[in-house]
Amino acid sequence: MANLELFTEQAFSTLHFEKQAQEKGFSAVVGIDEAGRGPLAGPVVAAAVILPDSFQLEGLTDSKKLSEKKREELFPLIRQQARAYGIGLASAQEVDRLNVLQATLLAMQRALKKLQGEPDYLLIDGITPLPVDLPQLTLKKGDSRSLSIAAASVLAKVARDRLMVELDRQYPGYGFAEHKGYGTLAHRRAIATKGPVLPHRLTFAGVKEFVEG
């Protein structure tokens, strides 16, 4: 099983943790983050990113601290500059079947599998390690401390938002394009009035009350 360290104190919005791993002999350090654990609808989306040693991208930080416009600007730049990246998801049905934490870990593993090349060290946002046989470091608020994780957070967030816009076309009347599946008042009212549809997480409060049978 992978070695696990947990850092909780100092914050670095740099490649500090990536360089720390490289000093230990690792050469393909991957930042991993997710988007969409909390919504009532839609998948959990994860991204895995390997950045070059000389990476610089002005304004990159935790995707939650960025405007939608800024995230959209950064999305293609990250993909262009990254040594490798992968995006994976777990569906609403997998969230219901596995629980949201396990679905998140599944999405992260799928993102890892889509990387070009073999990663040898993982930087993961949060406190839960992945069940893979690779050295890894979990970082609380990692998307504000590691540029690799911040890059992954932007890719995951933009990819998920775009999926929700597409779901809005398929399931009109729920406002998926606006609230991205989160439990806004308008979204909850739509669920109460129209009932849940396929993208909804049927085990989540705010949805399960309106599941027939």
Task: Give structural notes.
With 213 residues, the chain is of the alpha/beta class. The protein contains 7 helices and 6 strands, in the order E-H-E-E-H-E-H-H-E-E-H-H-H. It has a 6-stranded mixed beta sheet with strand order 1-6-5-2-3-4. Helix 2 crosses helix 5 and helix 3 packs across helix 4.
Can you lay out the helices and strands and say which pair or pack?
Elements: E1 4-7, H1 16-23, E2 29-35, E3 44-50, H2 68-81, E4 84-90, H3 92-98, H4 100-113, E5 121-125, E6 136-139, H5 147-170, H6 176-179, H7 185-194
Parallel strand pairs: 1-6, 2-5, 5-6
Antiparallel strand pairs: 2-3, 3-4
Helix pairs in contact: 2-5, 3-4
As residue ranges, the low-confidence spans are 1-12
The CATH fourth-level homologous superfamily: Ribonuclease H-like superfamily/Ribonuclease H
What are the secondary-structure elements, in order, as H or E? EHEEHEHHEEHHH
* Derived structural class: alpha/beta
Number of helices: 7
Please state the CA-atom Rg, rounded to the nearest Å. 18 Å
Percentage of residues in DSSP E strands = 15-25%
What name does the CATH topology carry? Nucleotidyltransferase, domain 5
Count up the domains: 1
> What is the spatial order of strands in the main beta sheet?
1-6-5-2-3-4
Q: Could you give the count of β-strands?
A: 6
